[in-house]
Amino acid sequence: MAKETAAEHYEERFEFPLWKLIKQRAEEKDISYLQAAREMLPEYQKGIRYRDDEFESAEIDKREKELAELAERKQEEINKSGGLRWY
Amino acid sequence: MVLERIVDKVIDTDFLVVGGAIGGSAAAAKAAEHGLKVTLAEKAKTDRSGTSGQGIDHYGGAFPRGMTVKEWKEFLEKMGAGVCYGGGPYMNQTRLYRQYANGFWGIEEMEKLGVTMRWDDGDLRPIKNFFGPAPFTRVHWYDCKPQMAAGVRKRGVNVLERTMVVDLLTNNGAVVGATAIDTRTGEFIVIRAKAVVVATGMFGRLYGQSVKYYFIMHPCPAAVSGDGWAMAYRAGAELANLEQSRVRGGMVHDLTMSHGNIRNEGIAVRMRTWDGDEVPSISRETEALFVDLERKGKAPFYYDFGNLPDDFHKRIEVCYVDERMIGFKVAEDRGFNPRTHWYETMQRKPTVLHAHPGIEADENFQSTVKGLFAIGDCSSGSHDVANAATSGFLVGDSIESFIKETAEPVIDEAQVESQKETALAPLSVKDGTESKELEQAVQNICMYYIASHRSEGMLLEGLRRLGSLKKVFIPQLKAKNPHELMRCLEVRNIMDVAEAHMQVCLERKETHGSHYRLDYPEPDPSQDDLRTYQRLENGQPVLEMRKVKPLEYPDDHKEER
């Protein structure tokens, strides 16, 4: 069963780490969330492997390969069932 | 009769820009750099107006420089032809090329205007787009609108905030200005101009799922009501490709996450049926698969982010900041955790009219009416922020020569009186219909009779019902103040464009692109390269089908700045 955003999840109170930092900074300095984001973003980005091309390419290529295999599998299923039409 | 006796204010300008978002701001700023007298009318407030009002996390294009036309054509072919950029095969091919060739110049002009384009290490950050062949540039654009607005003001543009242009003024077949209303004071204004550019963006308020008025998606609530399209159409300009409403998978309409946020770091996210089967990402090529899956009881469909590496979850968080930060709060309030929860997509419902549909424009962005120009999503094909910016800069950079050759505009006072009477009528209605009520009725008609699949009977009945609503309820629209008057005028625009949309859908008797006819399910090969162009003549719609204007540059041409 899909875990969609149903009422049962309301109690979980998940906090995005970056949003938590922004809220804290906004409260500490009594500034807007936007101003706090401007201050927090550069620091937060240092922990992200933005310019690690090897890592990035590997992850993206891996997903693309998985998708391509999936598309091929689905196409075979479609072909076996006589193809697709809008209606 | 003296104009000043009819209206509250008369403004004289060289160049009137209608709409102060990305394209309009670019055009206004650039024209002002040439020393022109520029007036910009924005229905909301330029600091946060338009579909980019809450920020943007990507700029649609990373453009190799120095290509000849021949190389460009080969590149497009390699990248997937036509769909690569803007309106592709649906638009004037020279305009398409000019946008592409000047794309990098557009980035440089944005920087000159004060907009942040570069990443923290001082470089642009191009992203390979797994959803389509066109690459784009990741940008921190949470402040792009205030940055642009400041650049526009700095260049001396006369900015009319919270001013809605009602209609264009014409004389001898040319546009000579416009009438407008100050949505705070109610002042009725005439703006006399030698040239007018409309930059009011896409049209997105005719289908229920894409309602943006109620802040369901991220544009400014005053956006996407089709004002530019409607005023151009009423002035006699052609609207192109109106049957090509966009059908796509997107996020279900709440604010938990922006659709772009999950894809603009370039990694494919898993898509699943409700019972867990993984399916390919929805795209133009896989739409038929999703129809089949729906029929098999596999809907709704969900995005599953669980497989993403932690680094990409962090990247998505940064996308939240760059584009529509309010998504954080909504997600938190709902307890939405992208690491564990699935997110329902919009499946394959019609969303907006943009990319292909819009005001027909030539290679210089001039519409089929002299003196009227169209840029960005307001024009047919100049889609997305990169095209909006580049088309705006191109028009602003070249409009001076047009203005120098144009005689002083002469306003037809009877036309002003007529527009004023029509525009202000809702202020005199006491026990009438509220604009929201009528807008909802229009959306219900569009959803039921025209949305995804069309047939002659449904379209005829839809048109009859829409016509009936116009006849009965437009005269009953009521407004207690100038702000509500703006809403009434928006509904009039929405109805005019919705009607034209339905008329073209009825006349195109084949399935073509994203226009699906149940009674003509196959494409007609004889119409394969024909596009639709509709205009009003003496109040009656006239539809033409013809080929797009081909590329006119020689193969070794390079247009760069």
Write the layout of secondary structure elements.
The complex is a heterodimer of chains A (87) and B (561).
Chain A: H1 17-29, H2 33-45, H3 53-80
Helix pairs in contact in A: 1-2
Chain B: H1 3-6, E1 9-18, H2 22-33, E2 38-41, E3 58-59, H3 69-79, H4 93-101, H5 103-112, E4 126-127, E5 136-138, H6 144-154, E6 158-160, E7 163-171, E8 174-182, E9 188-198, H7 227-234, E10 239-240, E11 247-248, E12 270-273, E13 278-279, H8 287-295, E14 301-304, H9 310-322, H10 326-334, E15 342-344, E16 349-350, E17 358-359, E18 372-374, H11 384-404, H12 413-424, H13 435-449, E19 453-454, H14 456-473, H15 482-507, E20 516-517, E21 531-537, E22 540-546
The CATH superfamily of the largest domain in chain B turns out to be: FAD/NAD(P)-binding domain
**How many structurally independent domains of chain A?**
2
Structural class of chain A: mainly alpha
Nearest-angstrom radius of gyration of chain B?
23 Å
Our measurement of the CA-to-CA distance between the termini of chain B, rounded to an integer number of angstroms, reads 48 Å
What's the number of structural domains of chain B? Answer: 3
**What form of chain A results from the Cα inertia axes?**
elongated
Helix content of chain A: 55-70%
Unreliable residue runs of chain A: none
Beta strand count of chain B: 22
Please state the second-level CATH architecture of the largest domain in chain B: 3-Layer(bba) Sandwich
